[in-house]
Structures are given as C-alpha cells and as structure tokens.
Write a structure and sequence with these properties.
heterodimer; A: 119 residues; alpha+beta; Arc Repressor Mutant, subunit A; three-stranded antiparallel sheet; 5 helices; B: 342 residues; 19% strand
Chain lengths: 119, 342
C-alpha cells in the first residue's frame, strides 16, 4: 500500500470514528444501519458508498471500550446489534472534539494570514 | 490505556481462536436487508433495490479483512500461518530438513563456542576491583616484546612514583608429594605484592608479608581453593601445616577464594615468593637475577593515567642506576605497557 493511501485511510477512519461517537451521543443506542444512515445524511459523500467500512470502526471502538453493543430487536422486528456510548466513549468524544476544534482554529488562522501580515 | 485494552482483547482473540465472522456476517446481512427495504420503499424494483444496496455496502471481502485486522493482530496471525506452512513443507522433505537443521545446529554451536571463548577475553572486564588500574609491563627490544629481569623489576619497583604496587611473577611447576602419588602442580612464584596488585585477599589465612619476600626467606605457600579441596582434604587446619613441594618443606599460610580467577596464569594452584638474590645484581651481570624470565604486573595509583605511569617507568628505564659501569642501554630497548581490559 502506498504511504499516502494509508494516510488517507487513517484520517477517514479517525473521522468516521468521531462521527459514530457523536451520532450515538445525540441519538442514543442505534444499530449499524441507522448509524450509517445518519452519517450519510449529515456528511454526504464520506459514507454514501462502502458503508460496510463502518463495521470495522465499530469493532475498534468497542474493543477500546468507547462503545458497547448488545443484540436486540429493531423497530421492524429484526434482530440487530445495538451500539451505545459508554462513559469512557463520552470522555473520548469530548477530548476528540476539543482536538478538532483546536486544529480547526489553527488551520483557520493559517488561511486567514495574508502576505502583508507577515511582512 | 485504550490502546492497551485493545491489545489485550486482540491477544485474547488470537489465543482463543475467536472469530467475529458470524457477527460481521449477521450485521452486514442486517444492514443489506434494511437498505434493500428502504430502496424498495423509494420505488425500486426488488432486483434493483438489492443491487443498489450491495453497491452501497461495498466489497464484503475487503471489509471482512479490515474487520479481521481489527479483531486480532494480523502480523502475528500471518506469522503463525507462515510457520504452519513451513512445518508442512519441512515434513514433506525430511532429507532437506535434516540437512538444514544440522547445518544450523553446527553454525549456532560454533558461534556460541567462539563467543564464549572471545567474550571473557575481549569484552568482560578483569574480575578484579578497579581492574582498569591493572597493567602488565614488558620489555621491548627492536619492536619485540619480552619478559623482564629481577633487576629491572627491583629498580622499577623502588624508584617509580605511579604504582600502588608492582609485582613480578614467573611460572612454577613444583611436584607435590605426601599423597598417594606425587602430583605436578601449576603455580607461580610472585613478589609479596602480587595479590595486592590484583586486589584479592586470601579467603583463609593471610597474604605474603613484605618481610618474607627476600633471598632464602621463609618457605611459605598460598593454595588455590581447588587444590585445597581436591588434594589436601579441604580442612581449615591446613593453615600452618607443612607440605612438601619439589622436596622442600613449605608452610601453608593461606587459601584463595573459590571464585578467584588468576588471569595471568589461570591454571595456577599454588603460589610462593620469588627467590632472587639482591646482592647478585651488583656483582654478576650473568646471574639468573639478570635473566629475562619475569612477568610484571602493577596497579596504578588512583587518578594516575596510564600514559603518565608509562612515562614514569620510561624515565627510570632510560636512567639506570650506575651500578654497572660497563653497562650501556641497548639501542631500541624500551618498556611497553599493556592496558588491562576495562
């Protein structure tokens, strides 16, 4: 795998993980499909194809203890695995959110800088 | 912390052979079904609805791989696969396997043997306290290194300012009688300061005294632990006892510690004092006192550099006491010092 490909994937996985956490935070326990739908609605192209990539991310978050899951019956009487945010996941979300905001602020300042400001 | 927990879970999955295949398949089927339903509600034909749902879900195989990578530790799992494959292949060709194993065994064995020999010689410090201060001293003549004479030692020992102790020694192979059979021993004749140079004291009894270190002085001997145990009964009453070496009677004054390593003569089991006549130095240049058969080893004073010690001895060697009016220093003669490994 080429280095830049790997990097791109990592960034996306990280972004996706954050979106999953936020979605579960806002909407409460959801099954995988509902999480995917929600992220698709909000983010558009990031998860309109390859929605299956969500499942490895869910597993990773669960192994880290940020989310937990149980089998339950879904709204249309199908068996589905429902994911919910744990307390640790909540803390993780807060931390990640702060990180994002800080990064965003820094990047924004960089874009605002004009040549004459640096003189 | 999170990474640690993930690692443990992964390790547990590998150890228990846990596979989330079923879980993943069920979840993906579920996802697929829900998407298909929704597509149909949006007005697609069932076939089209399934097709679109499958497209949206993405490549099942690559997702399964990602999922597995998340579950276990791919590196270790691949390694285990490789190992299993290797074992199968090796079992299929026993002749090749045998040759390979034999070659490897020989190679590893030889390396280990060479390393065990080289390691103590080149890498480990001498087994003595402050070993870096221990030097051996040699004569050099036209580039050739040679041993020194008693006369050299005496002059260097008396006039130097840089050594705490400077000792001469020579091999000695006395025959011990008194047991069932006579035994030839390896030993050393040494100056009284020899053990002080090495920084080791006898474990039982005492060290040589300076006063004993003279021509026809008292015949005293220090034994190795090994000799004391194996040939002389290992009795603590050995101190003060008399043993017969080469027909002469020696009083045992000490026994060295069991772990004592005598690097200059590793097989030595018995030590006594040199027996040279200081008077002969001045009268007879052809005497044994001027024969070059002594090794010399010294312990430099703390804080004194090796170079300064070498310079000190060089200066003495360049200006011999004029006890011998006819003697001139041979051209090309000088002293060489060997650094102890440290």
């Amino acid at each position: 795998m080429l280095p830049h490909m790997k990097q791109k994937k990592d960034v996306q996985q990280g972004t996706l993980a954050l979106m999953v956490l936020k979605t579960l935070d806002v909407l409460g326990p959801l099954h995988g499909y509902a999480v995917a739908r929600r992220i698709e609605q909000i983010s558009g192209d990031l998860l309109s194809v390859n929605q299956g990539t969500l499942y490895p991310v869910l597993l990773k978050l669960e192994l880290e203890g940020a989310i937990a899951s149980d089998w339950a019956t879904s709204e249309n009487n199908r068996r589905a695995r429902f994911y919910r945010l744990t307390r640790e996941g909540h803390k993780l979300l807060e931390a990640e959110k702060r990180d994002w905001e800080r990064t965003e602020a820094i990047i924004a300042r960089f874009f605002e800088v004009k040549a004459e400001d640096l003189a | 912390m999170r990474a640690l927990r993930r690692l443990f879970t992964r390790l547990r999955n590998i150890a228990t052979g846990f596979r989330g295949d079923d879980r993943l398949r069920e979840e993906m089927e579920q996802h697929f079904a829900l998407q298909t339903d929704e597509n149909m509600r949006a007005g697609m034909s069932p076939t089209e609805a399934r097709r679109q749902a499958r497209l949206k879900l993405g490549g099942a195989e690559s997702i399964r791989e990602d999922y597995h990578a998340e579950e276990g530790l791919p590196l270790i799992e691949n390694l285990m696969h490789d190992a299993r494959f290797t074992l199968r292949i090796l079992r299929k060709s026993p002749g090749f396997t045998l040759a390979a194993v034999f070659t490897l065994a020989l190679g590893i064995g030889a390396c280990t043997a060479i390393f065990s020999a080289v390691n103590p010689i080149f890498f480990e410090p001498l087994p003595y306290p402050h070993a870096s201060r221990i030097l051996t001293i040699w004569n050099t003549f036209k580039g050739e290194r040679s041993r020194l004479a008693f006369g050299n030692w005496r002059e260097l020992a008396e006039r130097n300012h840089s050594f705490e102790a400077l000792s001469a020694c020579e091999p000695w192979q006395p025959v011990l009688v008194g047991g069932a059979e006579p035994v030839r021993l390896n030993g050393q004749r040494v100056s009284a300061t020899y053990l002080r140079v090495l920084g080791v004291e006898p474990w039982l009894g005492r060290d040589f005294l300076p006063a004993e270190d003279r021509y026809h002085g008292p015949a005293v001997a220090i034994l190795s632990y090994r000799l004391w145990q194996q040939k002389l009964g290992g009795d603590r009453g050995i101190i003060g006892a008399v043993i017969t070496l080469d027909g002469d009677r020696y009083t045992v004054i000490g026994v060295m510690p069991a772990g004592f390593e005598n690097v200059l003569s590793s097989q030595a089991d018995v030590w006594t004092l040199l027996d040279y006549d200081v008077q002969a130095l001045a009268t007879d240049f052809e005497s044994g006192e001027w024969g070059n058969h002594l090794y010399m080893v010294g312990r430099v004073r703390p804080g004194m550099s090796h170079e300064a010690a070498a310079q000190d001895l060089e200066t003495i060697a360049a200006n011999p006491i004029t006890q011998f009016p006819h003697w001139a220093r041979p051209a090309g003669a000088s002293l060489a010092l060997c650094w102890a490994r440290a």
